[in-house]
Each structure stands twice: as structure tokens, then as C-alpha cells.
Amino acid sequence: MSTAPGRDVAAADVATPALEISDVSLLHGDGEETVTALDSVSLSVQPGKLIAVVGPSGSGKSSLLAVAGGLIRPTSGTVRVGDVDLTTASRQQVTTVRRTRIGYVFQAGNLVPALTARDQLRLPLTFGKVAHPRDPDELLAEVGMAHKVTRRPHQLSGGERQRVGIARALVTRPALLLVDEPTAALDRSRSQEVVALLAQESHRHGVATVMVTHDHDVLHHCDEIYEMIDGRLGKAAAPTR
User: Fold this and answer.
1) From residue 222, how far is each of 23, 48, 90, 153, 216 by CA, in Å?
2) What distance in Å separates the CA atoms of residue 84 and residue 6, rounded to the nearest whole number?
3) Considering its fold, how many domains does the chain have in total?
4) Helix (H, G, I), strand (E, B), or coil: what is residue 151?
5) Of 37, 63, 131, 148, which has the fewest Cβ atoms less than 10 A away?
6) In angstroms, what CA-CA distances link 12 with 27, 104, 135, 151?
7) Domain that holds residue 97
8) pLDDT digits (tens, 9 = 90+) for 77-129
9) Positive or negative, the Cα torsion across 214, 217, 223, 224?
10) How far apart are CA 240 and CA 158, in angstroms?
């Protein structure tokens, strides 16, 4: 399978992070009702790395993904995806970055019920021009779904739906993949398969992947682990492989 220039991890410029979050704080409300969702958070993710962010519910993990994906502007600090500063970019520029440089994998898959697996991957390509899209059938084959390209979500298992969701997120060749609790609805075996697949795709294609998870059993697949508590992010112990 061909890959776009510069997307192969061996050729990636490791000096340039795919995601650079610098001293970011995010406040909700005002006055006495102010809630600090993120507190001076910094995070740098290189191409080809899968990192996990763990922490209790309400610690700020979802806010981190929202800021990284340009869904929310932080109160202070900077967020860069490649060479684009999302905190100063126009709304149109942020939208373009989200469509062309960022892929999203959701907790429940978020597949369109009426579409086949193949058409799930074709859908993101209709939203705007993608310079080097991957072939949907080839990508589905790569994630082990070649035999089910014409199946609809209700005809797939939970693990299969997540595989299609991962493929859909990768079809635009994003530089950054944001993953929200991908194993929440899966048993232990399927959870291992899905996160191993995320690691494989990240390493093979040079995609920087940030995964939020409560599942400590899958952390050995990750390159780095961070823990978020009360809006603050810190490096956790190295994963045991």
C-alpha cells in the first residue's frame, strides 16, 4: 500500500511534534463559580507514538481531547497541530485542520447506522478535499475487515465496529489521532485487539495518537502513559510490555 510523502514513521521529522500543548489552562464559568478543567497542562506527542492518558472521571481527560482537537479554545496557553496554532487560527482554519489533519475514534464507534463499512470510510472524504486519502477497501483489509466491507453497524460486533471506526479515522491520513475510551464497551480480549491495532497503525504510518482510557490492562501497548488528576497532567510510570 502506498503512503503519502512524509507520513511513514521512518521518514517522520521527530524534531517536530504532531501535537504540542503548552501551559494550557481551561476555565469554565466565572467568579466564585469558576471550575478549572485544565490547569497548566503541557504535552508533546511525536509522530508514530501512541500515548495513553489515564485518570478518574472528571479529572479533565475529555477536556484535554477537546482542546487538542480544536473543539474548545483554552483560556490560556497554546495548542499546535503541526505548524498550525489552533489558539490563534481562524474558525475556518481550525475546521480545515480538524478535517484534514485530525482523526477521531469515539467510545461507541459513532458509525452511521444506514451505511456499510465501506461507505463509513467514504463519508469523511465528501466533506472537503483530502490531498492523499487512503483507499477504503485497502484500509479495511489492513484492520481485518476485508470480509465485511458491505456490512452495516448492526451486523457487526462491538470490536468490529471499533475497527471500522479506527479505519474511518485514518482514511484522510491524519497526523494526529484522538481516541476516547475505545474499549469501554468491549470485553478484555477485544480490548487488547483494538488497542494493539491502534499501536500498529500509529507505528506503521507515523500517526501521533492520544488515547484516553480507564482500561489499565491495555497500557502495555502504549509508548508513554500520562495521568490526569484535578486538571493537572503528569508523566506516569513506563508501560510494562
Assistant:
1) 24, 11, 33, 28, 11
2) 17
3) 1
4) coil
5) 131
6) 35, 21, 22, 35
7) 9-235
8) 999 999 999 999 999 999 999 988 999 998 877 899 999 999 999 999 888 77
9) positive
10) 27
Burial 6-15 (b: 16+ CB within 10 A, else e): ebebeebeee
| Residues 177-232: tens digit of each pLDDT | 999 999 998 999 999 999 999 999 999 999 999 999 999 999 999 999 999 999 99
Q: Which amino acid type is present at position 211?
A: M
Cell digits for 154? 448492526
pLDDT value at 14 more than 90: no
Strand, helix or coil for residue 198: helix
The mean per-residue pLDDT over the stretch 29-40 comes to 87
More confident residue, 150 or 237: 150
Q: In what order do the strands lie in the sheet with 176-180?
A: 102-105, 176-180, 208-212, 50-54, 224-229, 232-235
Q: For residue 18, give the amino acid letter.
A: A
Q: Is the pTM of this model over 0.85?
A: yes
Identify whether 241 is part of a domain: no
Is residue 217 situated within a structural domain?
yes
What's 153's domain CATH number?
3.40.50.300
Q: Which three three-digit cell numbers place residue 225?
A: 502513559
Q: In sequence order, what DSSP letters do the residues of 91-137 get, joined into one string?
A: HHHHHHHHHHTEEEE-TT----TTS-HHHHHHGGGGSS--SSPPPHH
